[in-house]
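Hi X.,

You mentioned you wanted examples for the new student's onboarding notes, showing what a folding record looks like when two proteins sit in one file. Here is a clean example. The first protein comes first, with its sequence line followed by its C-alpha cells.
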Amino acid sequence: MAPVITLASVSPRRQELLHQIGVPHVVIGAHIDESVRPGETPHDYVQRMARSKALAVWQEHSSLPVLAADTTVVLDGATLGKPGDREDALRMLARLSGRTHEVLTAVALATRAGIELRVSVSNVGFRALSAAECVAYWETGEPRDKAGAYAIQGRAAVFVESLQGSYSGVMGLPLFETVELLQAANVPYWCKMPA
C-alpha cells in the first residue's frame, strides 16, 4: 500500500508503532537543534521539538502529511534527555532509581491545513536499582540514545514497577493521540500492511 504520511523520525520504535496500527509511511529524519532553551519548561520543550521536526520535514517534503514526535523524561521539574556519555547515563539511572518520574511525548501532524499537536503525559515508577545493575544496563548499549537513559520496551522493562498513562507514549509515539491527529486530518489507519 502507498504511504499515507511521512514520519519525521528515524526511530525504529516509532516506525514499529505506526506499523502496529496500520499506517503506511515513508521515513525522513528531521535534523534540528534539540537544545533546551534557557527557562524552557519540559512541556514547552517537547511541544516545540515535535512542531519543529514536523515543520522542518514539511518544508522540504509536503506531498504527504508529516508526523513528528518528541519524548522527554522529567524528574523534579528537570528534563532528562539522551545521555551524553556513560557517566551521564549512570547519573540519570541513579536519580530515577526507586522514584516515579514523568514522561512527556508530544506528537505533531503538519498538513496543508496547518499543524496540530497533542501531548501524552505518563508517570513511570522505577524500583530501586543497584549501581552494578545500572552499569550492566549501560553495557547493553540500550540507554545510549534514549531519553532518561532507558527504553521501556527493552531490557529496562524490568525496572518498571508501575505505569500510569500511555505505554506507547513512553516508547516515543502515543498511539491514542496519534490517531486523534490522523482522524482529524482524514488520514487512514488500520491499512493492510505488507508483512
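Then the second protein repeats the pattern, sequence line and then C-alpha cells:
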Amino acid sequence: MHATLPLLERTDFPAIKRGPLQTLQVNLGYRCNQACLHCHVNASPDRKEMMERDTIDLVLRVLRERALAILDVTGGAPELNPHFRHLVSCARRAGTHVIDRCNLTVLSEPGFEDLAEYLASERVEVTASLPCYTKENVDRQRGSDVFEASILGLRKLNALGYGRTGSGLALNLVYNPLGPFLPPPQQQLEQDYKRELREHFGVEFNQLFTLANMPIARFGSTLVSQGKFESYVTLLRSAHRDANLDGVMCRTLVSVDWRGYLYDCDFNQMLGIPLAGRRASPRHLVDLLDDDLAGAPIAVARHCYGCTAGQGSSCGGALAA
C-alpha cells in the first residue's frame, strides 16, 4: 500500500484553533466484518487492534470528569469490541449521548442478533454507512451481498422505532462517493435516498450525511496507483470554502485511538499525525483530565481540504447548504 502522508504534509491550509471540547470520538479497534475500499482506517476481519478494558474505563472517567456531552463510537466495527456494551451502558447511565457508527451488516453477524434491541434499549443514536440506495453500487464498494444485509439491518432498526417520527431513536445514513469526486448536494440526495428506500424497501431514516472520501489509507493508495492522487487533492483544494472553517469537527472533537492516544480527528489518527498542542510528546486520554485543549492549534495537512471543499464534510455531514 502506498504511503500518502509524505504527499500531504506540505500544505497551505489555513491555521485553525480548537474551541471548547464537546465530543470524544473513540475508535474501539480496527477489526471489522467488512473491508471497504473507501475505509480510511483500513479496517478488515484480519485486524487485531482492539481497545482494552482499562483504556475504556479511562474513557468513561474522562467523560464524567469533563462532563462531555457526546461519545461518538467508531471502528472498524465498534460493536466487535468485547467491551462495547460496557462502555455504552456506563456512558448512558452518566447521561452522555452516545453515537454508534454502525456498518449495518454487523447486526446480522452470529452472536450479534440482539444488538439492535440493545442499541434501542440504551437509546443510542445510530449513524450507519450506506454509500448508495442501489445494490450494484453498494456491493461494488463494500463487497458482495452487503446491500441485502444492510437493508435487513435497517429493517431491524425500523421495527424497533429507529427512524420513525416521534420515537426519539435517531437513525442517520452516511453517503460516500464511489470515486475521486465531491459528494452531490446533501439535501437533494437525502430526498432521493428517502424516496428510493421507502418505495422499494419500506425503510425510513432521519438524516443523510454526505462525506467526502479522504485521500488516505486504501482510497488514497488506490488513487496513487491510478495516477489520480494529485488531481483529486487539487479538486479538494480548488473547492475550498473559508465559510466551512468554523464548522469543522476538529474544533470541538478529539479522536482517541485504540491505545488511548489523542488526535485532532480520525483522519489524522490514520495518518499518524498526533494532536497538535502545547506539548511535543504524544498526548493520551489521561491528559484530558487536566487540560481542556481550548485555544490549542489543530494539526493540518492537505487532506484537510476534504472537510472544507464544496458544501463541506464532517462526521455530522455537510457543513453548508
